[in-house]
Design goal:
Blueprint lengths: L1 H17 L13 H16 L3 E4 L3 H23 L14 E3 L5 E5 L11 E7 L3 E5 L3 E2 L10 E8 L2 E8 L6 H15 L3 E7 L4 E11 L9 E4 L9 H5 L11 E5 L2 E5 L3 E4 L3 E5 L10 E5 L2 H24 L8 H14 L1 H5 L3 E3 L5 E3 L1 H8 L4 H4 L1 H19 L7 E5 L15 H5 L6
Antiparallel strand pairs: 1-19, 2-16, 3-15, 4-12, 4-16, 5-10, 6-10, 7-8, 7-11, 9-10, 12-13, 14-15, 17-18
Length: about 425
């Protein structure tokens, strides 16, 4: 059982680092009715589809999952710009900060919100992680400890982890520090370790927390000790990593003059804004004003963001042209959508390049957005976005449609068995190297 969990964990981590462009978002959650609709679409799509032998090479696996994930990312971008409803599309309001060296803001409220607050934000201290920085030791000297098996414990978030390692006769201070840094980093326990050098031949092991700030009644984010460890001790005193050299700190700021604190430099305000603190106010009383942009400015920003996501999708497909000929089919479908709207979008300042990507002339886009009837002028942009959404949903539903395959048999129309999993073969590809 433990081996199965380890394998699944390895598969999942490999999937995230190799294929997924970003983490999940609120737009990746679905109602039961939506999941049922997706399943029914897959069943219908595969009911009459011919049987094929699919290319299962490593390149094909990477391509299939990449196509799926990038289509999902394009869909999520469209959803984040106002929603999937045609009437709300590209209607997302955009937050603004008058001084982004102090804080940036993202609007997370609803597009139709009438009363949206504006506030002043002054930052007096940024949230900081905990640091345990060890002793600086001559990095090329042999470790001055008995050559044996050692261990120490790290306690993070009420969970304790034991790290065991050998000190070998050939180990130097520098190589031992790097070995322990790799142990900590590979453990994925919300800590980061690195080896620092002072330029004089000495090195030190530094361990810091990914989390910032201290919760009430907490004095530390993590603790390194040898009190209950199972192997030889003494390595903490030698390396000097058992003591906190810089404690974690909370963010401190004033919101409309009222003092507040937060564990992180990222937090929400009134369920309307997500704030990211970027720096301390240069002078006392100096603040940044957080609010929303005008509808015209928001619309322009939404279009630019959509174009960026579209270009990322096209770029990803172009990367597989040599190894996966069927990616040319996907690009052709996207190009046909673009060519249909080429003329109308050109008047808005959107020009299509040879590779299918889009360039934005912001001057023309400004003129279109500031016209007497921007809604009518920008209607082709909504139509184009809606077409992209339909294509992204289609590609996401069956990425195997673009993988090299050989048809071996056509089904007998009206007398066949449903095969709802054929379009999901890409998911099994992630496990091929581990099972």
């Amino acid at each position: 059982m433990a081996m199965n969990i380890a394998v699944l964990n390895t598969v999942y981590n490999h999937y995230l680092t190799s294929y997924a462009p970003k983490g999940t978002t609120q737009y990746d959650t679905h109602k039961k009715s939506e999941l049922r609709s997706i399943y029914n679409s897959i069943v219908k799509q595969n009911k009459e589809a011919p049987l094929s032998i699919v290319d299962t090479s490593e390149a094909a696996q990477r391509f299939a999952v990449s196509v799926k994930e990038n289509a999902r990312e394009l869909r999520n971008t469209i959803a984040s710009l106002g929603g999937l409803d045609e009437n709300e599309m590209l209607g997302k309001k955009k937050a603004s900060s008058t001084n982004e060296d102090i804080a940036t803001a993202t609007y997370i409220g609803e597009s139709g919100d009438d009363e949206i607050p504006t506030f002043e934000l002054e930052v007096t201290n940024l949230a900081k992680p905990q640091y345990n920085t060890g002793n600086y030791l001559p990095k090329d000297d042999i470790v001055d400890m008995a050559k044996d098996l050692y261990s120490f414990d790290i306690r993070v978030n009420d969970m304790s982890y034991e790290f065991q390692f050998n000190v070998k006769p050939e180990d130097t201070n520098g190589s031992l520090q790097k070995k322990l840094a790799n142990l900590v980093n590979n453990a994925n326990i919300s800590l980061q370790a690195e080896v620092l050098e002072d330029g004089e031949g000495n090195s030190s092991l530094q361990i810091r927390s990914n989390l910032t700030g201290l919760a009430p009644e907490k004095s530390e984010v993590f603790r390194i000790s040898e009190e209950k460890t199972s192997k030889n001790t003494g390595i903490l005193d030698y390396l000097g990593i058992g003591e906190i050299t810089r404690p974690a700190e909370n963010a401190q700021f004033k919101l409309n003059g009222v003092e507040r604190t937060a564990l992180s430099n990222r937090f929400t305000v009134e369920k309307k804004y997500e704030i990211q603190l970027t720096g301390v106010s240069p002078e006392e009383g100096m603040s940044t004003t957080i609010g929303v942009k005008t509808d015209i400015e928001s619309l322009k920003d939404n279009i630019i963001q959509l174009v960026g996501s579209y270009n990322a999708f096209i770029k990803s497909a172009n990367e597989y042209l040599e190894s996966q000929p069927q990616s040319n089919r996907l690009l052709g479908e996207m190009n046909r959508i673009a060519s249909y709207y080429n003329q109308s979008l050109g008047r808005l300042g959107l020009q299509f390049g040879e590779n299918g990507d889009i360039f934005v002339d912001e001057t023309l886009l400004d003129n279109a957005a500031q016209s007497d009837n921007p809604g009518a002028v920008l209607e082709p942009m909504k139509d184009f976005t809606n077409s992209l959404l339909r294509k992204a949903n289609q590609v996401s539903l069956n990425p195997m449609n673009y993988v090299n395959k050989t048809i071996v048999a056509y089904k007998n129309p009206g007398h066949n068995f449903v095969s709802p999993y054929a379009a999901s073969a890409y998911s099994g590809m992630m496990f091929n190297s581990y099972c």
